[in-house]
Amino acid sequence: MDVVITTAQVPGRKPPVLVTAAAVGLMKSGSVIVDMAATALGGNVELSKAGETVESPNGVTIIAPDNLPASMPAGRPRSTPGTSRPCSWAWSRTGTLNLDFEDEVTKNTVISYGGAILSEPVKKLLEPAAPAAGGPA
User: Fold this and answer.
1) Rounded-to-integer distance, Cα 14 and Cα 20, Å
2) Using CB atoms within 10 A of its CB, is residue 6 exposed (0-12), middle (13-18) or buried (19+)?
3) Rg (CA), the chain
4) pLDDT digits over 93-107, tens only?
5) What pLDDT, in 10s, does the model give residues 49-88?
6) Which of 40-44, 47-51, 79-83, 121-125 has the lowest mean pLDDT?
7) Which among 8, 18, 63, 132 counts the fewest CB atoms within 10 Å?
8) Per-residue pLDDT averaged across 16-28, rounded?
9) Torsions phi, psi of 106, nearest 5?
10) Interacting residues of 59 by C-beta distance below 8 A, sequence separation 6+
């Protein structure tokens, strides 16, 4: 499975297309694309539809949230320079990904790694609901 996140937005103009329909057609079934630049003018993914989640003919899910910045909590700090450091320094000179899970920011930023869900909040969301009291077990 592949995951692609696009964010190239130009205020007041159509976002540049970074992922063509042909490129989506070459992706593995089950892959996910999040087009964070999607607007009524278009998005970074040719197949994006702003405010919708669509599936391509070959099974790629394209998520294009509408006005994503407005969905962020008001109390969130606007500048969080410390959060980008682990992401930008995780690539070694050999091109391999080296994540330090002892680093607090990395530990709280990485959701999944090596096929395992690491984020406790995400694990809780994915747990099956417990049967209702008095209902079938």
Assistant:
1) 15
2) buried
3) 18
4) 566 667 778 877 777
5) 999 999 999 999 999 988 766 665 555 454 444 444 445 4
6) 79-83
7) 132
8) 94
9) -60, -45
10) 29, 30, 31
The count of C-alpha atoms lying within 13 angstroms of the C-alpha of 54, restricted to the half-sphere facing its C-beta, is 15
User: Which domains, ranges and CATH numbers included, belong to the chain?
Assistant: 3-67 (3.40.50.720), 81-126 (no CATH)
SS3 of the chain: CCEEEECCCCCCCCCCCCECHHHHHCCCCCCEEEECCCECCECCECCCCCCEEEECCCCCEEEECCCHHHHCCCCCCCCCHHHHHHHHHCECCCCCECCCCCCHHHHHHCCEECCEECCHHHHHHHCCCCCCCCCCC
Q: Whole-angstrom Cα distance, residue 61 to residue 27? A: 10
Instruction: Provide the whole-model pTM.
Output: 0.54
